[in-house]
């Protein structure tokens, strides 16, 4: 098929852009994808071709506002949970709990990605962002590594806030494998999913979605040290251990701190309950609706720390631990991922 027809437009400028993109792909290393199309190494990270074209447009077109809040994660690192919490915190004065937007909308819809449209790949970025409710702050999200963010986001003249959430790499691997397996075995793909052994091998080589895992994490961690007023670095495991203090940190960083009166009235506790795993997972919208080919229920699995022990062999876990040690030891990264397993679901996603 002609590349111009493939993008569904007769615009000569868009046709030229698409042809330039196809030429770019020819120059990039490529790897087996976890679902659907192949992944390409762009700016040091592995990205699906269809998403990559949108990322390049985002890098050129996205204009951050000074009041924006950008939530950054790697896939399956607590993204849905963080979106729900940040949205509920930032807009708590606009929604009464009985009629809250999170009760009828998946968090992925309320907090859209800047680089990809989960509802239709064809919608223009500017049109999509302009259709958001006229609230301030805008709460947006991304899986992009820090070095690949649009310049308007990282500029020293822009005061927008970034929140990064990281997770134990072994849990991230297992959760990503489950998620991609469900997508790849769905009606939209008709393909056999990757085996866990294949996924483990790709992950250890850095060829995970938006990976390498360690470089992605280190980029935001270093930015949080250099610009703590702009970048907040959170750990999934710490949020599981003490959600209330972490929610208050999050609120403070995005410019929406809780007042003493709100704390006394139980507002913090209400938000934590609203955004809990069990509450969101059991909502009808998250059990029956879809975003593109992805069932909303796929965003909710177990919500526990340490589930990797039920899937990875001791040899697989040891290999991933060794890679993690090698990747982090020369960067002064102080966090050692704890291996505790929590057997019951809690507030995390």
TrEMBL record:
Protein name, UniProt field: Sulfotransferase
Superkingdom of the source species: Eukaryota
Enzyme class: transferase
GO molecular function: sulfotransferase activity
SUPFAM superfamilies, alphabetized: P-loop containing nucleoside triphosphate hydrolases
EC assignment: 2.8.2.-
Lineage: Eukaryota, Viridiplantae, Streptophyta, Embryophyta, Tracheophyta
This protein's record includes keyword Transferase: yes
Keywords, ordered alphabetically: Transferase
Source species of the chain: Stephania japonica
Signal peptide: none
